[in-house]
Amino acid sequence: MKNKIPGDIFVISAPSGTGKTTLTHLLLSCFPSLNFSISYTTRPPRPGEKDGVDYFFVSRRHFEQMISQGEMLEWAEVYGNYYGTSVRFLREKINAGKDILLDIDVQGARQVRRLFPQAVLIFIIPPSWEELEKRLKKRATDAPEEVKRRLTAAREEIKAAREFDYIVINESLDQALQELKGIILATKANAKRRWPQVSKLFYE
Ligand code: ADP
Ligand code: 5GP
What we know:
Elements: E1 9-13, H1 20-30, E2 34-36, E3 39-41, E4 55-57, H2 60-68, E5 72-78, E6 81-86, H3 87-95, E7 99-103, H4 106-115, E8 120-125, H5 129-139, H6 144-159, E9 166-169, H7 173-189, H8 191-203
Residues 16, 39, 43, 74, 76, 78, 83-85, 103-105, 107-108 line the site of guanosine-5'-monophosphate.
């Protein structure tokens, strides 16, 4: 078998409503070689969300079975629902040399860092509390109590930003996207990461 250079893992976390999904979609369209890690969740689909595209939507029983069978690389209970990343999906992709983008919460990001210290962790924050509230309400996919719950959780989540490698402030969508693109390009050009490729090109 050909010796593949493993792919990179990019983790994006943000308080709900910050614009992470919007930015993730834009980023994926800019980098066709980037693979989105489709999580499993017990949350019901939002309008427009598709099973097997945005998430794998499963029952609590199914999810708990996956945990007990060791199929989750990481998982967390977020806002009352389970969310988790399949171990098989991630390992298969990076072993095949593919780059992966994970959109997961802070607890999940910590678990990924423990298992893959080389993962690049990016935290996105809103420009203000007021703007975060506005965006959550504008999205209009969650009930008012749910919006309140997500705003309260955001106070704790933002404290974790310091554990990440990069912090992007999503005030202007365009500026935030430029920064994310910059982080990905700089990571790919990092000398230590690129060396195996150089070595292959010139010394094999
Ligand atoms: P998340 O995935 O972080 O929960 P979304 O991507 O669903 O957030 O975005 C929440 C809402 O905020 C959406 O209505 C989206 O269109 C809007 N939004 C995202 N980024 C910006 C921005 N920079 N300026 C204004 N609105 C934004
Ligand atoms: P939402 O319900 O808004 O799609 O997601 C709620 C939260 O769950 C977000 O912070 C999102 O990043 C997180 N999340 C989505 N998938 C996963 C996952 O596989 N693992 C973990 N730990 N969090 C996830």
